[in-house]
Write a structure and sequence with these properties.
Number of strands of chain A: 14
Order of helices and strands of chain B: HHHHHHHHHHHH
Strand content of chain A: 25-35%
Structural class of chain A: alpha/beta
Largest sheet of chain A: 6 strands, mixed
Oligomer: heterodimer
Distance between the termini of chain B: 25 Å
Structural class of chain B: mainly alpha
Shape of chain B: elongated
Helix content of chain A: 25-40%
Strand order of the largest sheet of chain A: 6-7-8-3-9-10
Largest sheet of chain B: none
Distance between the termini of chain A: 35 Å
Number of helices of chain A: 11
Shape of chain A: globular
Radius of gyration of chain B: 20 Å
Radius of gyration of chain A: 23 Å
Helix content of chain B: over 70%
Number of helices of chain B: 12
Order of helices and strands of chain A: EEEHEEHEHHHEHEHEEHEHEEHEH
Number of strands of chain B: 0
Amino acid sequence: MPVIEIENLTKYYGRHRGIVDVNLCVDEGEIFGFIGPNGAGKTTTIRILLGLIFPTSGTAKIFGKDCVKEGYQIRKDVGYIPGEVSYYSDVSVSELLDYSASFYDHVDKNYAKELCEIFELDLKKKFRELSMGNKKKVAIVQALLHKPRLLICDEPTNGLDPIMQTRLFNIFKELKQKGTTIFFSSHVLSEVQRLCDSFAMIKEGKIVKTGKLDQLGQMNYKIVTVQSKQKEELKELLKIGDFKEDNSTVTFRYTGRTDTLLKNLSQVHVENIWIEDPSLEEFFMSLYEEGER
Amino acid sequence: MNVYRWEMKRNFRTLIVWTVILILIQLMYVAIYPSMAKDTELLSRMMKVMPKTFLRIFGLEDFDFSNILNYLATISTIYVTLVGSIFAALLASKMLAKEENEKTAEFLLSKPIKRTNVVRQKLLTVSSILVIFDTSVCLFSLLLLELYKRSAFDYTRFWLFWLSQIILHLTIANLIFAITVFMKRQDSTISLAIGTVFVLYILAMVSKLTEKVKVLGYFTPFYYSDGVRIIKYGRLEPVFLVTYLLINTALIFASFLFYSKKDVYL
């Protein structure tokens, strides 16, 4: 059963484009990555799902209920971690969490306490005294304490240190096992690759690609830069047409088995080598090129 | 009612500060009353030399200062009517606008709560605070009157005066609240709120200048709740009460309707 169904969703802010004709489907129990550069429409989509803004046309449904008409019922089972956390600055963390809990019918106090311990939250501090990362942690706890069926996150790792990122991802995996659906937006491709089952890519308000993550793996290529004097031999060996040459180095995209690449490379004299994942920008460029062809 | 409890708690300190300020101002003016009352003769003569229009604006034409109620009402037209209205305007403008300005609306509206319920609890907070505020100042005023009075005064007029002030403050609050609901961005809400109060106040003053512009008075609640007139004639005109009722119903209804459909930009 789909948890989120978005059909032909369009939002214009006056004349400005928010999103255009977005179609998405998120199944129950999956982790869904919503990828796109800044200003692509990720936050707009999320805000429509939460009922903060209303669509110009099209529909968005969560748990089969309409986000515009039944938002109140939907939000009982939704947790939301915002991209930029701005809460009431003059209250303490514990007051804020209590206020958050007061909106839900059954809140397990022990679970909330456990979450605070995992993220090492100082409950007595005033919200305004917290650093960006700590604010984010408060946002994570308040989104989880009522055990939502759907968790919506807008760039959840933004501002978190690597240790906390790992803890958050572990929690995501645990929640997934319990059947929670997680929808999160990100512009960090590696994050999505590590966690997600499915993904959608949005650019300039339009969905450019959706699919399962294993498809993303097939498209996945490496950016290889080799420093070598035997450039011509290298070209012949690898049989790749698209080389970028720069003084003593050559750069090319490599798709395929990594060990084949290494075997081939061992036949020439290599002074230095860099094998990198493509950046999201490059990834988008390749998608665009694919679209044009 | 969790939003109501939360807002009451957060606004409690402001309430105390404004109440204390108003009480202190009253105390200050009542403290100089005995010396004023001694020289009523002189005061009346002084009034006669002042320009007629000036007296009319402040409602001081043939006003008898030997009665403390008259004295306090005249003073209160500035302090309770205007300062109280500014408090009401600021309070109402903060209620929703602050959530949008400080982006806490994102927190509140992503919770399972209907928009209409947000408006209901926020408006309830505003009215509760204003009623507590006015009641406290009113009761303190009554105490002062009892302590400093030289002759008996009409209690009905006293209560009518305060009733008119509470209604005025609630109306101002509902008006400003509705304006903030209509506004897309909340950058200049506070100046707009105070500006609106002053424009309406000045409108009421201008309307008292000549018969020609009297009609202007019907556009401002300050005219309906003119303390000096109420104390003088001892009545709050039913037509004004009906107008108040209609205005407030319309404003509250508009707030509910528009907030339910509002895109909350952050």
